[in-house]
Amino acid sequence: MDIQLTFLKYTQWSGIATLAFAAIAILAFVLKWGIRFRLVGTTGFMLVMTGGLFALSLAPLTRTVIPGALNYSLIFDNGATQAVIGLPQTVTPTQLDATLRQAASDLYSYGRLGAGGNKSLTVRARTVTHPEDGLSVPLFLGQVTRSLASREDDGVAVEVYEDKFAQLPKTKPIT
Asked: For 41-93, how does the pLDDT look when each residue is reduced to its tens digit (9 = 90+)?
């Protein structure tokens, strides 16, 4: 079911409830009930809720889902043009490509500092290897670059560092 239609249905029910509270508040003033001012507050709250639900029914709340993408951890994000995500050591090059595309889509925002010029967002993917006990080494597996000028960017450039996959452990780590 479309989420916008769901919010529109909730808006209709909230609007009906708002009108009911308004009618009860008017009746309370006519009959001089003690809770008349509380009913005015409740009516105002319902009016704000109805407005918010209506706004949510207008805006798209969809998220792009890239098939084959893994869950990732956001390691670093400067809020402007650079971000780093963390992946498990068991990632494959195909999964890395899909995950980098997913991260580029997820991390895009109009609020980043790229609207004024021809800037791009670079998301790098890394994992942590342990070549010996007590030693952890970050290993960058690839990166994706996309434009910050528009959401629909056809020029997404994905780089997968195939040579880095040879440095990953051959056996699955115990988690």
From this structure: 999 999 999 999 999 888 766 677 888 889 899 998 887 888 999 999 888 88
The domain of 7 spans 3-58
Looking at the domain assignment, is residue 174 inside a domain? no
Are residue 90 and residue 29 in the same domain, yes or no? no
Q: Render pLDDT for 143-168 as a digit per residue (tens, 0 to 9).
A: 999 887 777 777 788 888 888 888 88
Please report whether residue 88 resides in a domain: yes
Compute the distance between CA of residue 78 and CA of residue 6 in angstroms, rounded to an integer: 36
Same domain, 153 and 88: yes
